[in-house]
Amino acid sequence: MTIDQAALGFGTGERAIYATNPWASRGRLFEEGGSLTRSEFQRDRDRIVHTTAFRRLKHKTQVFIGPDGDHYRTRLTHTIEVAQIARALARALKLDEDLAEGVALVHDFGHTPFGHTGEDALHEVLKPYGGFDHNAQSLRIVTKLERRYADFDGLNLTWEALEGLVKHNGPLLTKDGQGTRGPVPQPILDYCEIHDLELASFAGLEAQVAAIADDIAYNTHDIDDGLRSGYLTFEMLEDVPFLAGLMKEVRDRYPHLDPDRFTHEIMRRQITRMVEDVIGVAQDRLKQVEPQSVEEVRAAPMTIATFSDRMAETDKAIKKLLFSRIYRHPDIMRIRAAAAEIVTDLFTAYMNDPKLMKSHFWVNHISGLNDGQKARHVGDYLAGMTDTYAVRTHRELFDRTPELR
């Protein structure tokens, strides 16, 4: 993919006409005065970083459960890597870097303990009450569950930050109101009744670069962690031509490199090639669409910041490798089953006796709620748990707790 280097935004400080302008934000649900020292999107980013939800990410699983080792990615370190890549893409495309970083930092707030295993388990027990979706949960956290400010619940983020959070992977509705990826989670629909996030349009480019940065980050670091764990080997990487080419490139230049350095040299090249591919595609699509504002980006007939067809095939091949060798490995599946048991047990216990949720702010008001309302609060409480807190709490409530090793 060819990149127009003259059009890159490195070092210019210039914002493109199609970028989201923080000084022309659509504002916040609850009106606030402006800041003398920060743009609206800088304020969003800072509020996100100072939340309880952000701190909890350090003890939430990415792929490998915490006891497996200190050097594996957690949900927090994954988030930081996504934010770094998103900011780099935003700078290259002359976008608002603070908004791109903010969307990247908040995108995984709604994840449960134990990674996607916890999400699947929580969705299963919540099916009679509308199910569970981590993206919808992220929205609940930043609009309702964080309780820090005197004047409102949540963080009162700008419309653009909330739009990016909800729609970073594309529109949720078609023009005729049908869900693009199945039914839209009810918490998102409920919020849009009071603060319309325009679910049938694309998000701005800042959210789009955050979304593709997520793919780049976990494709790369899951390979890195997989090699560290022993579930992946360099020989297995040869099955993906793109990775095989990177390894040959490193071997040719550094024929006697030790394995740790060899891995890092592969990973840094992988990130670079994927980032450059996205920049090249975005530049080409911007020339096709010629948006004169962020509104025209939202109305575009396609995602602008994405992989080329060739890199998209590589992305699929990497995901296939990761699923077969790591995510579905018998050891990981055994741990997944144990983690799911913990989540399911806790849900049942809290539904039977909500008073066990001692630190949940709704616990003194939950007796008057119906089962659906009660289940949603139990879901909120469980989703907010870290891996360590979930295990510790299970040990307090049950005679036997499954081993996560």
Strand content: under 5%
Distance between the termini: 43 Å
Q: If you compute it from the alpha carbons, what radius of gyration comes out, rounded to the nearest whole angstrom?
A: 22 Å
> Number of DSSP helices?
17
CATH topology of the largest domain: Hypothetical protein af1432
Portion of residues within helices: 55-70%
Overall mean pLDDT score? 93
Give the biggest sheet: none
Protein name: Deoxyguanosinetriphosphate triphosphohydrolase-like protein
Domain HD: 75-219
Keywords: Hydrolase
GO molecular function: dGTPase activity
Defining key terms:
HD_domain; Hypothetical protein af1432; dGTPase activity; 405 residues; mainly alpha; hydrolase; Deoxyguanosinetriphosphate triphosphohydrolase-like protein; 17 helices; 2 domains; HD/PDEase_dom
Structure notes:
The protein has helices spanning 40-49, 52-56, 75-92, 97-106, 115-126, 134-145, 159-167, 186-194, 205-229, 234-237, 241-253, 259-289, 294-298, 309-327, 330-352, 371-383, 387-397. 43% of the residues are buried. It has 17 helices and no strands. The chain has 2 domains: 1-8 and 38-113 and 132-330, Orthogonal Bundle (Hypothetical protein af1432); 331-397, no CATH class. The model has no long low-confidence stretch (mean pLDDT 93). By secondary structure, it is mainly alpha-helical.
